[in-house]
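Training component of the fellowship. As part of building independent skills, the fellow (R.M.) carried out the full modelling exercise for a liganded target. The chosen ligand was glycyl-adenosine-5'-phosphate. The inputs are recorded below so that the supervisory panel can assess the work.
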Amino acid sequence: MAESNSADLMDKIVSLCKRRGFIFQSSEIYGGINGFWDYGPLGVELRKNIRDCWWNDMVRRRDDVVGLESSIIMHSKVWEASGHVGGFTDPMVDCKVSKQRFRADQIFFSAVVVDGKNVGYVTVLESERIAEELQEKAETFKRKKAIQGKLEPVQPRDFTEAKSEEIPLIPSPATGEPGSLTPPRAFNMMFETYVGALRDESAVAYLRPETAQGMFVDFKAILDTGRVKIPFGIAQVGKSFRNEITPRNFIFRSREFEQMEMEYFIADDDDWAKWHRYWIDWCRDWLVSVGIPASALSEYNHPKEKLAFYSKGTTDLMFKYPFGVQELWGIAARGDYDLTQHSKASGQPMEYFDDVKKKRYVPHVIEPAVGVDRILLAILCSAYCEDQAPDEKGKMETRTVLKFHPRIAPIKVAVFPLLKNKPELVKKAQEARDLLRPYMTVFYDEAGAIGRRYRRQDEVGTPFGVTIDFDTLGEKGPELADTVTLRERDTMKQERVKISDLPGILLPRVR
Ligand code: GAP
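Fellow's submitted model of the complex:
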């Protein structure tokens, strides 16, 4: 990851994504819509590569995981049974003056205590430095009010922990003044819609907030048709929708995003902790295989008292984003809760007959659930790099490079004829492009100085560049005819290879 892992790293990444066609704000010409993003030509390729790698490794290369693509809108009873209608909420707080809306668990406050006496409150929004920022604000508060005495260290709490008598005294993060924050209210994050022509209660449906329920609802159908045996998994990739109160940090928390989830069903008496560990390790290794450094990853075990009653354990793989260490991938041991809920609500048995153990039971499940967009952002943050490289005249300049793992890079190889006005060079370059195109994404570029063309590809993370020059035409002797320079993005090293050898050299390196 780039060393300048600071606030402006995020700005640089966002600006590069827009400038080079990875990611745009949705509906930008109308002023944009908060929490929704569009993926441009390079973004689409990057997303597709992430998805394909996951699908290949999770489904196609395993005997024990099968795929599913369930519908986005399902029967509303699915969401009643799963607990989402009743409980998929975030605590929401409004500022009556600024009309801004916050998630209560992202507002942090502390009493300002001087000589043991509570003299007021200070507030900050969630950040990497909550305690430090609160302490600084407490000191400013004391100084501005000219309060004498010893300021005690702040005790940060989030707004869900505020007592009712404290709420009117806590300053709004928007105005800095107390008295305008409402008590937290539960806000259901599911988007509602209506199915059919009638707009009444019976027609209410929801855009799915997770793909997981499709796997539970179709469990029986897959069991009956899929020739699967416990332990086995069902995997799905698809869009999910959450009406997040505060979408933020670029694509990290959006209202429309894509999930890659897998439900791994195990026997009721199997060692769930062993499988939980297995999937945590699998997910970590997979992230490393697509170019996320192990050093940027850590594990967070949800404390027992914060787990849902049915959950045996949840571990999040955390990534060090520029805006802080945040959840990337959740791996949850959910017991038999989901299948049991759907069995009760639908009246359909969700049991498995184990012909080895000669018994019938409701399987338990381990669920690795991740967002494509969060992986994509982690990959961008890991790949972004600025180094020094010589320009056309040999003068050193700053080079921006996305050091994507070749598996993930949107374009695998760029092909350049040295000059665009030499038909023989162009013809050879097009031959090389056409030779490679069946195997990988190739970008053909004949515009501008060769150094600038390399830089343009470095900036979008293309791992290899192929240049067709006069040597290719045999002008320096027949031994060089039909050879090209192959340039490697990170080292900028160049080697001379035969055009006909290019697929054989590049294929193993980009797969
Ligand atoms: N089925 C379990 C489930 O959905 P989750 O922790 O709510 O669990 C799983 O979501 C993953 O989906 C998260 O770890 C994250 O990668 C991604 N995710 C969740 N909410 C998201 C959002 N608003 N924007 C982008 N990604 C999100």
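The panel noted the following from the submitted structure. Residues 434 and 442 are 9 Å apart (CA to CA). The chain has a mean pLDDT of 95.
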